Task: structure prediction
Amino acid sequence: MDFTFTEEQKILRDEVIRFAQKELNEGIVERDRAQEFDRSLWEKCGEMGLQGLPVPEEYGGIGADPLTTAVVLEALGYGCRDGGLVFGICAHILACVVPVVKHGTDDQKQRYLPGLSDGSMIAVNGISEPGSGSDAFAMQTHAVARDGGFVLNGTKTFSSNGPVADLAVVYAVTDPGKGYHGGITAFLVESDTPGYTRGQKFEKMGLRTCPIGELILEDVFVPEENVIGGVGGGGPIFAQSMEWERACLVASHVGAMERLLEDAVQYARERKASGQPIGRFQAVAHRLADSKVRLEASRLLTYQAASKLDRDRKVGLDASIAKLFVSEAFVDSSMDAIRTLGGYGFMAEYEAERALRDSVGGTLYSGTNDIQRNIIARWLGLKTSE
Ligand SMILES: Cc1cc2nc3c(=O)[nH]c(=O)nc-3n(C[C@H](O)[C@H](O)[C@H](O)COP(=O)(O)OP(=O)(O)OC[C@H]3O[C@@H](n4cnc5c(N)ncnc54)[C@H](O)[C@@H]3O)c2cc1C
Result:
């Protein structure tokens, strides 16, 4: 496969890197320490069109294809040192905007996509619950049909952007007998709907500038025009959004890995030990060579998966391979950046320790890496116990 950038991809990529380096990085150490989300940065990203990457132009987006979306998210991950902000934007686009673009009615698209694209709205995806995560479709949240709509009850957890979101894509059981195939429905729920409350906000190891919390639904009435993709259609909608998330969110890790590697190589050239640059020590140089190999393999797997989105049935396999490999490569390369920096790598002022903390999240969200291995094994024709 040839992944040579088109002229449009080159221009977008360069613009986003310049924008992110100039506008998004100031104060990141302090924001991370304070676990602070900065809405003004979100709005700036909206002005750049980032949140509307895969949204058709008629609904206020820039109409990028999936591969271009991945290329731009990679650029964002490279230019922006605020991993929480990058993650929040990716979760918004891939798990919330994509379902509306792919399955929303024209009315839903007109009502929500312009605001979701221009940075004036923030979205959250709610599927995980306190008692169900990997087995997401064992959810307890349910929706009962009533008076031209549905009444939702339940609690969602670990919802990225939840504490600041204006709109939630909520999955609920509408037919307990059916499960994934026909039993789950996706709803668009505005956060000012009576009965919708934001529960606890979690203190986290990493991605600390992206607030994550609970969503509590108590007799929340959602009109039927806010059902996405038809009653009972939620399972496949969620599965498709996870393909997008697995394929494109890791693109931002590829960008972050490239930046970490550049910083580590520079450090290895300048830092001296025993009278010579540490990069002359084979132990250090080989570590950075390994990081380079992981980076290039990650990029190819990501582009391969993204290029198959919505085009090739095998994308489920490619997206899981990319998610598994790149998220683990990101952890390993963050750790190698710390090793290269020695004691400085352990200090908050340098970026490597934050990258390591952020990278661990990637092995858990969008389905843990154990779940990715289950999916890959299934494609190999092997049955795993689930
Ligand atoms: C940073 C972050 C952001 C998140 N954002 C969101 C969000 O925006 N919206 C949302 O709905 N959720 C979100 N989540 C939740 C995430 O999707 C779940 O944490 C994840 O699916 C795992 O579920 P769990 O935490 O309940 O773990 P469990 O499912 O309880 O798993 C615990 C352990 O058992 C293993 N395990 C479980 N089942 C199997 C199996 N069948 N085969 C092999 N191993 C298995 C897991 O791999 C893991 O090691 C987020 C999580 C994190 C960490």
